Fold each of these.
Amino acid sequence: MNKAKAKERLEILTNIAVLLVAVAILAVLALNYIGGQKPVPRIVEGLQQGQQFPTISGVAYTGAASTLLIAMSTKCAYCTQSIPFYNQLADMKINGKTSLRAIAIFPNSDDEVQRYAQQHQLKTEHKSSIDFEQLKLTATPTMVLVDQNGRVVNFWVGALKPDAQQQFLNSLEPQLPDS
Amino acid sequence: MNKKTMAAILAIFAMLISISAALVQGSNTVRITFNVKDVSPDGLEIVSPAHSEFSNMKSKLLNKKQNAFREDTPPAAVFIKNKSKKDVVAYVLKWEVTRLDGRVETIVNSYSRPDILMGKKTYKDENLSTTFVLRSNKARFFSLSESSAQGRELGLSSEADDDSGSPASTAPARGIGTSADIENDSLAEVKSITVSIDGAFFDDGTFVGENSTKYFERMKAEINAKYDLLQDIKNRLENGEQPGDVMEHLLDVSSTLKAPNSLTGPDEPADVYNFFKKMYLNEVLQRRAIAGNDALLLNRLLPQNFDTWPNLHKRKSESTED
């Protein structure tokens, strides 16, 4: 009887030991796997000059010689910093100094965008609830210049530095002086 | 605890570990958007890793040189195809790496053969696969990281390619911006990469590209520095000045010319001009010390005909024609 009980105990202990060893080996393997793992890049296609830009509800590219879409977010500090530049573009359009139509597009809700625009006195047209992924936009701010056929003429990812902003303003087609 | 129970427990453990590993791998995947600005209307196209063609081209390069191209191609890598009928002899690639926090790092690399833009017509006789010249109907591989395949050439047609060594050893890239090795950075912090051909000179002197880096003006300044120097020598000799006097004049110019000691990158074209003018002047003066015969040296320096120098100009459709 005692012999049988001892045998059973021994069997249990052996099984537990095997289990512990197995867990230890797996834990070591898992730790090595996690520690040695480098980030695996998944490259996705983004914007490409010359390609057709997807249509955005309420924006007709044919409405202007060229349209500048400014991808912004209410949470993006660089976007807020760039608002004076975007307002300059809006002013130029209002004053007839350029035919470029600047439209700020946001992934945020309409309420959020309205509040943001009011708070930061954003003068450009703005559209809310835009699906950036569908437009291949990943970073804010991003400016995409689209011609009247909807083709991407140029784009700029990230906030423009002051000299690049000036270069951009200078490149805008000059309006003919009033006769 | 019988054997069945034991096996079941082990199976559960193995499953848990597999799920954890899969989750870890999933969380380690970083999504990087690749934006491209090329000058495809002029025949220069960028093939990024996001294009299906990239892996085909990579395979072709791999088959060509088994050990030269690592399997783990860095994410910041592209092929540039020259589908035009002309060779591209000077060009600049601009990489803009956008971090998760919105910061954009710009890395600018230029590759040039100024001698070809100074009228060297025999360059086609060279083994151009070992240079950075973007030959017509060929492609080259470029990476932001260190890569043994940097600049390696690939044919666009099914024709057999020349055996091309890495050109990096013979013609190092000339950076005109900050340098960075994206592999050493945390890849997880990269949101997008934008690569653009900011400027390119064809062998006939035609320039294409956005030119946000003022590459056209810089390259033109470099060429003009030599052109003006040689033209000055030619004029003086034609006006009857003695070679020794011309040399003394060059010595004077060299000693008074204020030029930067090195080019750091985004230099002003005027600085580029003065830097190269001083460099060419010093070359002439050094050769004088060896040659010992001013007349012979000056005659050798002067080109037979300045007309063979390509006229550096922006493509006609550009609004600002130079």
Note: Residues 2-35 of chain A form the longest helix (34 residues).
Amino acid sequence: MELFISQIFNGLSVSSILLLAALGLAITFGLMGVINMAHGEFIMIGAYTTYVIQNIFKSNVPEKFFDTYFIVSIIMSFVIAGIFGLILERLIIRHLYGRVLDSLLVTWGVSLVLQQLARTIFGSSNVSVIPPSFVDNNLKVTQLLSFSYKRIFILIMAFICVALVAFIMYKTRAGRNVRATMQNRAMAASLGVNTNIIDAGTFAIGSGFAGIAGCALTFLGPIGPTIGTSYIVDTFMTVVVGGVGRIVGAITGSFIIGMGTSSFEFFTSASLGKVITFIVVIILLQIKPKGIFTISTRSLDD
Amino acid sequence: MKSFMRKAFSIFTAAAITLSLAACGGNSNETEGNSSSTNSDTVKVGILHSMTGTMAMSEMPLVDAVEMAIDEINENGGVLGKQIEYVLEDGASDSAIFAEKATKLLTSDNVATVFGCWTSASRKAVLPVFEGNNGLLWYPVQYEGLESSHNIMYTSCPPNQQAIPAVDYLYENNKGDDGKLQLFLLGSDYVYPRTTNTIIKAIAEEKVIEIVGEEYLPLGHTDMSTVLTKIQQTKPDAIINTINGDSNVAFFKQFKDAGLTANDIPIMSFSCYEEDIKGMGAEYAEGHLFAWNYFQTVDTPESTTFTEKYKALYGEDRVTGDPIQDAYIGVYLWAAACEKAGSFDVDKVIEACESGEIEYMAPEGLVTIDPETHHLYKVARIGKANAEGQIEELWSTDERIKPDPWLTGYSWAAEAGLGQ
């Protein structure tokens, strides 16, 4: 029983990490249709932003307020990754809307450039971030059953971020404009929506959420120039399985893959668990080629 | 306007691609068109390590160490009166590129020798290149053994100088009340961890050791929750950790978060050194065990000067460790072999190495090249990480151990189908 609960928690935790990492991609790839291979590097930018802010706090702020660095980091990761996203969109991506293969290649190139940039600035070694003391413990229920505060924190953070994105997309005027632009660009433009600004803004927000994911992932994983590459495949898989274009798709996708990976891994091994997950995904996409949740449209050629 | 923008854009794209290619391609500071490895006052050597990609984090400090050794030798008059000049090539964490760059170094740069490689995959990829072109490679990382090429000198250790003493140590110090040692084997999913664990399982047959779990993670794996559940479930006396690369950071961080400590279950790591500890944060590694031949804290005059020099050159926050030291001593051993041979010719240098007289007073202590196996006589050490991220020696062998990559000295090896 303990084992069962602990495995459920593991699955949920993996799902929440995936969801957080894939949320930005659900916007840039899901909504906008840009295959952004540099998505992982926005996660990296978030992680390094956290590292820099931690260092600033370490040398300038009294020790008892040190923990507040994390709140500043979350905001700054969003802002910095968002700015990078904005620059990327304005300089490159906007010339490539509709040219899927080109954008794939170019963003892959951008990801290499960003990795090398990080290596030049911070060195090739990993850097360490000290987590705030309020997450540095765990909730021990029994000998076998314990929940790490960091994982609970990430779970809550993923939940808040999803709520935030859902709110922006479905409850605000800006969100309505975004959805209108993505569904029918010409019509939205003719009704007075500035689609240029919408494109840039949406891409920046998507990148910003990747930054937040990077900030949270400093709790659990390494922080180095190549960390983006460890998440890129999983995040794309999450968005594709869930169904492109819907937030609920990303949630379902991450839940299926997260739960799947951790339970298959439990019964087999890490490598085999990953293989079985991929097989399940392939089968799922055979049955539902466009993912679990799709937007119904009237277009014929889509 | 539009066409201008398009042009500007295509230029930008081209620049971006060139930049990224340049980043992949690495840089070389070679001199031009020199058909032989030596000219009147210089001798050319190659350095072949990953400077980009996932292994860059581990291999970059080794490049620094080799460069430091070369500079030191040059300051003291060079080798056979010639200054050493090096060609730096980037293996880009990709075995195929390693093989390609090795070919380039041997056939077009005509280097006298090459210092390089980290993963066993990259070494296996360049091995036929070195054997085919009669080159000489100095390989600086501990590995799974079961190899001894005529054209490679191994300056780190096979399992009998690291893994086997480490298991003996755990057997002496960490077994449970019932006199049985329960081990959990955890590693990355490739040749080194799998071979090492095969060896450990063969030892377990001989002794009262029970292997309660064996798990392999894909390289770059970052979520340890399920593996940790399995560890908590099996409650081993110790974990043998052969994870390589970034995953170590994730493992140590999440191990602590799961509420486990070094007192409950110590982790004995084979592929994780001071540099990795710095990258994860000292508090995660504190109290855990590490098996190497050299730690930065080893108390010899050579070790102190080595670390001081390294820090002075590359920054006070840098650390040294076993692989860095092994890369460094490779250059000195090569220089010593050349001096003995009186030549830079590969055959003569290898012959000198096989004289059994090539030795060097390394930071870890005296090392000597074993004529038969091309490995080094070394002391094995076990250490415990402290709060500063340094590893303090707990135990070491009294004598230097004779390298035994083929495990000929162990009866269980033949039974388990290991060795020759």
Note: Chain A has one domain: 10-230.
Amino acid sequence: MLSFIDLNRFMQYIDFSKVQQLFLYDPSDQLYFSTSFFLFFFFALLLFYRIFSKSKNLKIYTIIFFSLFFYYKNSGYFFLLLFASTFINFYFGSWIYKAKTGGMKKLLFISVLVIDLGLLIYFKYTNFFIQIINGFTSGNIQLLNLLLPVGISFYTFKAMSYVIEIFIETMEPTNNLRDFVLYMYFFPNILAGPIDRAVAFLPQIEGEMMPSKEDMGRAVFLIMSGLFKKAVIADYIGLNFVDRVFQVPLRFTGVENLLASYAYTIQIYCDFSGYTDMALGIASLLGFKLMDNFNIPFLATSIADYWRRWHISLSTWLLDYLFKPMQMSFRRMRIYGSALAIFITFLLVGFWHGASWTFVVFGLFHSTYLAVSLLTQKFRKAFWDKLHLTGTKTLKVFQILITFHLVLITAIIFRSDSLATAQNVFHQIFKYFHGAVFFQWITGYTQVFVFILIGYVLHFIPKSVDNKVKNIITASPVYVQALLLALMILVVVQVESAQLQPVIYFNF
Amino acid sequence: MVSDRLKKIILNELKLDSFEFQDETTANQVPGWDSFNHINVIMAVEKDYNIHFKGIEVLKVKNMGELQKLVDSKLQN
């Protein structure tokens, strides 16, 4: 029997200042899905969600409150910026809808776009532009001491999808600020997407907001798969191999640089799709269906196909809101207009990723691939027809391999911290290959090698198999599902190094 | 109601023999009407009726019925 004296003594061991620390923002200890702290808080959220199951209003506010705290833990006082952005876009949306004249509508629309993009550009790109100007003028303008608000690239695009659809009259604004706040703050996708459109998310708030049995099974499957891909495969490959090579490519042979490139390609897939899976799974547990971001991207038979399979929420956003209007404006230029529109769009895809020349060049490669692909489509088709290869499996495999390697080239640029580093990687591959080192590498980096293979295998698993596993999980009793989840968390904890690897896309 | 003239323009541009266009028919339901052929179709319509669409007007169009309405509104002016 615990007496009060024992309890008192026990309480003395609890350092309450440490507990307080948990609730405060610490830039070196941000809140990611794969932390134990998040787990604890998420269970608390689910508990309240269950308790409030009869009141939708309370459920919504529970998520909002939790999302606010989650955002604060990740980005400190920038949650105020998120709030400002939410407020502004909500009211502008309403004003645009109610505007009496076309001129007024346009003015309001342009104003809110300027504000949204202005904020994004200010925080993300000011120092980049200053550096360029300094370079040109040999000037010495002081760089601003700016931190990037977490998730700004994602929530800005979410907000813009709302006002754009209201402006082109494909959607009516919501009268409920609470609902719009939920949409903007929604913690599963605030940090790194998917960029869900208001038109797809807001109606779900009208729905049950309660997971069905299928939703729960799906959630368990996605969270397990996401955790494994991200925390086991991606983090391990990155930390133990890719990071080392890309830090000093010249210290490694060409074959190692090439292997690091293959490794990075699967690392970023596992990292990002793993995170997305977790986001989708968590949202599923709250009764929300977010859009998927990936569809076996390395099976793409062309770069255009690749972008229909990779970061789908971003590419469809840019295609619908940027490419299509541009293409329509350039229609008199026919195919050249389309090529120009696609070129500009993908240049911006690159630039969206960050204020760095490597991202610009990344975008440039993809936009060139796509423009050239479009302009040469007729010739290529005629060529394959002549060789009687059209529609054959041989051609398909060839196209997949070519597309994959075109992507690989851009992945090298994407990963490099500078264009010089990327150059070094290519230099080693082409000038200093030393293929025989491969065998030494396998013995020296066996676990990395195995993980790379596992990563690729996981990537290529067809959706039908995914669905079968999902169904098995859904059919299992709840305690089995909980056990599986706990098991996966245990595995993750074992494999995870002391330092948690943030999701690569958090930097955007 | 989608006029025969509009149907003919589209069938011709997409090189289709026939297709049952309803008011609710959307572009992705019609074979060959992808995002690149889309501008060819729009331009063919503009040329045939001798009208000009503003980019944003076309973006708002969701289906055949709305396209017809847009064409009609242009012809009235």
Note: Chain A has a mean pLDDT of 89.
Amino acid sequence: MEIKDILKQLKSIQPDADYTRRSRHALLHGRAFRGRARGGVIQFVVDTLAHGSAIALAGALILLIFAGFSTWNFLSPFEIKSLDPTSLRAEAEAIDIQIKLTNLAYPEVPRNETTTTPFSRAAAPRDLTKEVQREAEAMGIASASSSEEGAHPVTIEEALDRLAQ
Amino acid sequence: MIDGEDKLIHDAVKGEASAFGSLYDHYQPKIYRFVMIKVSQREEAEDLTHQVFLHAFEHIGRYEDVGFPFSSWLYRIARNQIIDHYRTKRVHLPIDDMDENRFAADPGHEAALDAAFTLERVQSAIRRLKPEYQDVLIMRFIEELSIKETAHALEKTEGAVKLMQHRAMKQLKSLIA
């Protein structure tokens, strides 16, 4: 078969009837058509006003941004004295903002105190000995030890030996 | 071109729904066919065809009658819609998603099956051509537009259309052979 004849046969491709009905209805009765079909002079006036006001607002905003406060001072019936750049600069220059370092004081810490803390290692064995001694006294073996304490301090081993005897 | 098309377009521009309806009834099958051959998926073809007419309705105020049928304008919109469609979406067609019914048309008749298979092959071959070659073949040999109308729809010269038609047909034959 000639290729042109085959191509002509492709004309048999048709859209689904239900799809066609739904699509047609959506187009002709949908939002897009109603919006466009409103038309007329009123629509033209509304569109023109909308565009015009948008352009005017954009212009005012651009003018305000680029011309700044000088335009405001020029156009506005109200004066904003506090926003006058000359007076603001003069005020800024008048402020004395010197920081006096001599006023800064640091608390002095004695050198010898820095090394002695309540948690120093030297304190621990002394406290332990006292504890043992106190316990020994409580158990009735403190008299002998206390009498000899000045010449020969009782060690834990000795205390335990005495207890065993 | 339908009888009284100029008046229908004029009325449609003024917002007359029935005029739009008449234009839609006449041109929708052609546009659908054009889109369907190019995209191959029924759902996509339906969506795109709807978008074409939606766009046409919204912008018909810009339509200028310069002596060409209304269809040329619609084909232009359709081409742009398809280009946008392919630009925004990569199309993948897993074999499982293919419509089996397309190949199972009237299994009782071998001849009908052969014909369906041949048409499917030709469609598949068309889709492998360059987009503008596809457009030329569809417009010239399926929709039977004149060289002049095709040139206007494709925004090319008549000479360019003749050349494209020749090359497109040559490539199509080699693809089918």
Note: Chain A has eight helices and no strands.
